[in-house]
Structures are given as C-alpha cells and as structure tokens.
Design brief:
With 206 residues, the protein is an all-alpha fold. It contains 14 helices and no strands. Helix 6 packs across helix 7. The two termini are 18 Å apart.
Length: 206
C-alpha cells in the first residue's frame, strides 16, 4: 500500500486551513511543559493532563530547576488527575533534571542521538520522544499516533500496526514528502484536527 504523505498534507491543508503547528500546540512554559505533558498523557486524556500541568504551574514547579529538586510526594499530589502517579512523579523529576543539565546542549545533537537520549528517560517511549523532538527541538518527525494510524487505515494501510511499525511501513513515504519541521508540526496538527472534526470517522465508515 502506497501513501503519498505530501499529497495527503496538501489535501488536509485544503480542507482545514494552513495551520501553524507551533501555534496549534502552544507551550508557554517551554520544553518542561512539553516533556511533562508527554509523560503525563500516557494512559490518560489530555484534559486531565491539563489539570496536572496547571497544578504544577500554580505550585511553581512547571520549571525544570524547581521540578528537578521537588519533593516527590508533592508532585504525586499535584499530578493526581493524570493517574499512575507513583510512576509518573519520579519520571517528571528525572525529566526535569535532564532538562536542567542537558536541555540546551541536546539541541546540538543529531536526530538519532537526541532520540536515543530521550528514550533513556523514564516513561519516554517512541511517541513521546518524537513529540518532544518535534515541538521542543523543531525536528521533522512522523507522529504516527492513534489518529494518524486510523487515517492511514482509512486510506488502506492495515489497522494492526503499532506506532513504530506504522512509522517503519511509511518511512519511504515520509522521506519522499520531505516536510520541514514546521510542515511536519502542521501535518500532525491537521491530522488531529481532521479526526476531532469527525472527518476521520466518516472516512472509516465509508
């Protein structure tokens, strides 16, 4: 099954407008907000994550320096809406410590090395690493999240593929599209917008 990602990007842009991916997912607190969100959203809805991020911000902990030395029990209490707090709280502290010590120098790493570095952080899986790379470090990454896989399935790609399997299956198509980091972020925003507007469900039902 061949999918032309460049053509799909143009199609979605025609249907939903020329979205700016950076504006679509604003990060007022910067990289710590992005990385914390990527950890907190696991097995959870983002509406619940927003409650946790707001609580961290109100406590002055949506800051890498502060969160890196925070009392884990305080973090547990603040992020309770996000679930799995006993795993996520220490992961947040570890991520904050990494950002404090290496967040700026990481921008100098090539894509493969940055990906491997992020994957070594607790609870940072393939999707989380790609999201952080794209939104925090402005790298062109193929976010094959649930919405993307559902869209590709509606276009003929098997539905059983995992995040990484889908990315591998479409690696050639992604390279051929040659999207810039800004276009890759816009593509992700368009896929999510398409799904949340109910257009994806209509395609799957067709």
């Amino acid at each position: 099954m061949a999918i032309d990602i460049g053509a799909l990007y143009d199609e979605l842009r025609d249907r939903h407008g020329d979205l700016d991916g950076w504006d679509w997912w604003p990060m007022p607190a910067g990289r710590i907000q992005q990385l914390a969100g990527a950890i907190l959203v696991q097995q959870n809805r983002f509406s619940r994550v927003e409650l946790s991020l707001a609580a961290l911000g109100d406590a002055g902990l949506l800051d890498a320096d502060a969160l890196a030395v925070a009392d884990p029990d305080q973090v547990v209490a603040l992020i309770r809406p996000s679930g799995l707090v006993r795993k996520k709280a220490p992961a947040l502290v570890a991520a904050a410590a990494w950002l404090r010590d290496h967040g700026d120098t990481a921008a100098q790493l090539d894509d493969d090395e940055l990906y491997r570095t992020l994957r070594r952080l607790p609870l940072v899986g393939p999707e989380s690493a790609d999201v952080v790379m794209m939104y925090s470090y402005h790298r062109s990454r193929h976010i094959t999240d649930t919405y993307a896989r559902q869209l590709y399935a509606a276009r003929g790609l098997p539905t059983t593929r995992s995040y990484q399997a889908c990315a591998r299956a479409l690696a050639t198509a992604w390279e051929a599209a040659a999207l810039t980091p800004a276009e890759a972020a816009a593509f992700h925003a368009l896929v999510v917008t398409h799904a949340q507007a109910g257009k994806l469900a209509a395609e799957e039902a067709a």
